[in-house]
Each structure stands twice: as structure tokens, then as C-alpha cells.
Amino acid sequence: GRVVAGIERRPRGDCFKANFGQDGEVVRWVQDEQADWLALESARILRLDIAGIDFVD
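User: That's the sequence. What structure does it adopt?
Assistant: C-alpha cells below.
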């Protein structure tokens, strides 16, 4: 498997909502080896050929 892309969603101002449609900001995600490994391992364990993995900080 491989990681193809990622994005980071951030809320603006005092709002907690980070969805782009609700005025959240979308920025390019800088790949991280640990996050890549975790996403790939999660997809492997779940036996997924294609997956979208969300991380919550």
C-alpha cells in the first residue's frame, strides 16, 4: 500500500467547526512517517484495498 495524499482541516476564529463548507480552512498536510505507517497498518488490518483514514488531534 501507499499513502497518496492528505489534508488538514482547521477551524477559523472562535468556531470549532473545521469543515470547508462551514468556513473551515483546508491546508496541505505535510506527510509524517508515523502517521503514514498508522494509516497503512489500519487499512491492512481491516483488509481494505482503498481507505480514507481520519486522524483526530
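Residues 7-45 form one domain.
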